[in-house]
């Protein structure tokens, strides 16, 4: 019995030793042929990496150059590329790689070009840079507008533009006159704007599936929900009339300079919030006058914004630069005469609307916002 036990133990020990040697002993490597040592094999082209924002960001001029490079890549003839591929020599062909280029208006295109000429989208415009001298010729301006709007007027642009124009006209003419419809439209605009901000900042690199449908349907759906809430919870909606006007007023003030008047992102956010709070306080202190100005200015700004979707002046780029912080998007805001004209007409329309609403509601009708004043009839004399 003892000898059998010792035999079993010896077998187990032998098995463990042989098993451990299998992990320790290395297999010999094959000998390298001396003739293959000096032969250089072409390495495969690495896939392009879409880099995110870097700490030191580019100025407006570099962003405009990026727009021009994208426009050249997105609009070039693919047949010409095929001819160049046939004519190119083997050494040059080894440098070519497939690059995904952002073609504006949420469209991307895959092109083939050499590494030395590849525009690597690593930088974006930063409000921290001072760009007092921006050089942009006719072709540069054309590519700048192409990156913002694309070619022509899309269905989404037309629908959004018409919606903004109609809402703007209502605010300028009937904003003070009708109470619940005004609160409903304020809720619609505020919720739709915040929904768009959330969508554009979380948009993936290649966009959403059916991007335009997503933006329109989701923004309108939540906008309608916000309009219904403000119509029924009117004590809250009343103060958002001033808050919405303060938001647009802050954006308007910052739009009077290329890359915006306020150059620091945190300062811009504080300025917008502070302006909204200021208008809420003015609603509490001077309700009638503040409501007249708020509806007039909001209507004028929305009207000009909607008109820009058809005129394509670059007016909307101020809003994009302020609210679009997506690292996959590259925004720049430069001013020229059409933009200045659009900004000036916001003031003109605001003053006209304030004069009209004040005369019609305060002088002629003696009306308070949301309060129907019924004149007491004198009892008939006996």
Total helical elements: 13
Strand order of the largest sheet: 1-2
How many structurally independent domains? 2
Shape: globular
- Structure classification: mainly alpha
Q: Give the biggest sheet.
A: 2 strands, antiparallel
Which percent range fits the helix content? 55-70%
Assess the beta-strand content as a share of residues.
under 5%
Q: List unreliable stretches of 5+ residues.
A: 20-58, 78-88, 91-98, 114-131
H/E element order: HHHHEEHHHHHHHHH
Task: Let me know the average pLDDT.
Answer: 76
Number of strands: 2
Instruction: Report the radius of gyration as a whole number of Å.
Output: 32 Å
Q: Quote the distance from N terminus to C terminus.
A: 138 Å
What would the keywords be for this entry?
382 residues; 2 domains; mainly alpha; 13 helices; membrane; two-stranded antiparallel sheet
Notes on the structure:
The chain has 13 helices and two strands. The model is unreliable at 20-58, 78-88, 91-98 and 114-131 (pLDDT under 50). Helix content is 60%, strand content 4%. The chain has helices at residues 2-24, 60-75, 78-87, 90-93, 138-149, 155-174, 180-201, 211-232, 234-254, 265-285, 287-311, 317-323, 337-364; strands at 96-102, 108-114. It has a two-stranded antiparallel sheet with strand order 1-2. Strand 1 (96-102) and strand 2 (108-114) form a beta hairpin. It has 382 residues and is mostly helical. It has two domains: 60-135, no CATH class; 153-364, no CATH class.
């Amino acid at each position: 019995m003892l000898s059998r036990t010792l035999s079993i133990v010896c077998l187990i020990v032998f098995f463990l030793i042989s098993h451990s040697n299998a992990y320790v002993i290395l297999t010999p490597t094959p000998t390298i042929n001396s003739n293959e040592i000096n032969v250089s094999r072409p390495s495969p082209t690495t896939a392009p990496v879409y880099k995110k924002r870097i700490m030191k960001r580019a100025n407006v001029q570099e962003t405009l150059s990026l727009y021009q490079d994208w426009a050249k890549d997105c609009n070039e003839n693919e047949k010409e590329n095929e001819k160049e591929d046939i004519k190119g020599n083997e050494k040059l062909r080894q440098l070519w790689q497939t690059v995904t280029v952002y073609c504006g208006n949420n469209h991307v295109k895959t092109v083939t070009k050499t590494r030395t000429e590849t525009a690597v989208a690593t930088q974006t415009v930063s409000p921290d840079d001072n760009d007092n001298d921006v050089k942009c010729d006719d072709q540069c301006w054309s590519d700048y507008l192409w990156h913002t709007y694309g070619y022509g007027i899309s269905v989404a642009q037309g629908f959004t533009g018409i919606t903004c124009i109609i809402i703007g006209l209502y605010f300028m003419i009937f904003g003070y006159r009708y109470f619940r419809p005004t609160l409903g439209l304020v809720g619609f605009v505020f919720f739709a704007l915040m929904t768009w901000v959330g969508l554009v900042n979380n948009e993936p690199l290649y966009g959403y599936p059916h991007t335009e449908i997503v933006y329109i349907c989701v923004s309108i759906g939540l906008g309608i929900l916000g309009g219904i809430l403000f119509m029924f919870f009117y004590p809250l909606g009343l103060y958002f009339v001033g808050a919405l006007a303060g938001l647009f007023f802050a954006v308007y003030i910052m739009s009077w300079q290329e890359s915006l008047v306020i150059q620091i992102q945190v300062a811009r956010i504080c300025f917008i919030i502070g302006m909204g709070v200021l208008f809420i306080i003015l609603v509490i202190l001077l309700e009638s006058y503040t409501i007249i100005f708020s509806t007039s200015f909001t209507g004028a700004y929305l009207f000009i914004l909607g008109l820009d979707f058809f005129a394509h002046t670059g007016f909307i780029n101020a809003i994009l630069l302020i609210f679009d912080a997506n690292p996959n998007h590259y925004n720049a805001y430069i001013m020229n005469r059409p933009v200045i004209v659009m900004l000036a007409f916001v003031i003109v329309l605001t003053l006209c609307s304030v004069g009209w609403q004040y005369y019609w509601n305060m002088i002629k009708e003696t009306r308070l916002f949301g309060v129907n004043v019924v004149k007491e009839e004198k009892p008939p004399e006996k």
